[in-house]
Each structure stands twice: as C-alpha cells, then as structure tokens.
Amino acid sequence: MKIKYRISNDKRCKEINDLIQKEFPQMLKEKNPDLILVSGGDGAILHAIQEYNHFKVPFFGYGTGTLNFLMNELDLNKLKKLLEKLEKNESDSINLKTLETTKISVKVQKAKNTKIMKVGQAVNEVVLGSKLMGYHSFLINSQDGSFNNFEIKGSGICISTDLGSTGYNFNLGGAVLPLGSNMWSLIGIVCNRYLEDILPTNKITVENTSKRPGLSVYLDGVKQVFPISYGDKIIIQKGDTVKLAFYNQKKFFEKRLDISSRYRKG
User: What is the pLDDT of residue 201?
Assistant: First the structure.
C-alpha cells in the first residue's frame, strides 16, 4: 500500500513528523497514494480532505489534538508497526475499517447575471451567517418540497451532514443523525421562527433576501472569501464521497453514542 503523509506545522505533531521523516520519508513524496495519513486534531483531517480528496482514497487520522473525534488514538510505536504492515500489504492482519460519508456541495447563483459559481464542499456542515448578533433574512426551497418559500430571519442557518451532526449542529440543538442515513440536519441560528428539520439529501436553495452586508458561507468552520449579495441564491447539493479509515472503529461509534445519549441525561 502506498501512503502519503500530510506533514503538520502543529507542535503537537512533532513526534510523528520526526518518525515519518526518519523511517518513512517516501510518504512525504508519494504522488499516487492508496491512503492519506494525517496527524493533529479533527480540523487537520477536515483540511486534508479539502486538499486531497481528489485521490478518492481513505484518510487515516493520527490524533494529537484535544477531542480527536475523527482520528485514531494509538501510541507512536503501535502506529509505526501499523504503517510497516500497511506498506507490506498486510492490511488483512490489521483489520482496518473504512467508513464512507458524503460532503455537501455549495454553489452560488448571482442575482445580477444568474451565473452559477462554485464555492466548495463541506464534510461536516455549511453555515450561512456572519456573527452571533448578525441579522439576515432567507427564503428556503427544497427539491423534495420539504420547504416551499419558507421565510426566516436570524443570525444564520446550519446544514449538517450525518458525520458532522455531532459537532456544531449538536451544539445548536440539532439531532445526531445515523451514519449512512443519507439525511441532513437543517437548523436555524437565533431565528425568529422554529427551524429544526431532518430531511433527505436533495437540492436546497437558500435565497438571501436581506440587504444587510456581511453574509458569508462557512465550510467546516472556515469562512469562504465569496461575497453574498441581496438576491443571491446559495445552492446546497449532495457532494463527493469521503472515506475515513479506523484502526478501532468501535471507539469511534462509542464516541457518537455517548454524544447522542446526552439528550437523555437530565
């Protein structure tokens, strides 16, 4: 198996950076990988997916962050042995599990010239808004008819994938979605109307009906340098498939279960 390592500038990744440079230097130059190795926290693997998902191969995260929700947690010596086996194509003895999820694709149709422009894709969630006390108005329509000229005003809107539903969406009070459910969670951020829906992945159009400045698109928490003006339509659709590899997938599911169960705790 050919592995590409995405070197990190995070100080917490120094040990693994040193290990790769000393024991597996070929991973730094690999141009046709079967697996992408990423170190750091959850943000690191999200950024790596944005950068390398065109390879259409699984991402294996080595956790050195705080939560490490999407990452594998194992000591450096164990990681070294695992990488040696993977390079020798002994993956059967490791029993590496792969999980698939689908990104959200975002485009913008400009009001003035109706030109449709690509913004990008999100693994966890898409947020439309500015700041917590910002105020915007939206008109929402969906291809399946769940929303038909639904008007809402507030700080913003969050559309989350099944994988990302345990993050910002959960903190807003949104539902934790079952993995592989092919569903999205749509929730309002400080809005004048109740908006907390689960709907199948389909085309959703959100029109900016406010002339207030500052509305932006955030993909996985990163603000996109893309001006949204009055009358512009943000088009949300199903995006590319993402594969995450786990050494111990059971721990990942246990973390999701723990988050879901918090709804039931008093």
Answer: 94
Same domain, 113 and 204: yes
123 and 214 co-located in one domain: yes
Full DSSP string of 231-252: T-EEEEEEEEEEEEEESSHHHH
Q: Indicate whether 90 and 116 sit together in one domain.
A: no
134 lies in a domain? yes
Alpha helices in the chain (DSSP H): 14-23, 42-52, 76-87, 91-94, 168-171, 249-261
Query: Is 256 domain-assigned?
Result: no
Among 18, 42, 220, 240, the one annotated catalytic: 42
Domain contains 128: yes
> Is 75 assigned a catalytic role?
no
Residue 166: strand, helix, or coil: helix
pLDDT tens digit sequence for 97-153: 999 999 999 999 999 888 899 999 999 999 999 877 789 999 999 999 999 999 999
Beta-strand pair 183-191/196-200: antiparallel
H helices within 118-217, ranges in order?
A: 168-171
This model's pTM is above 0.85? yes
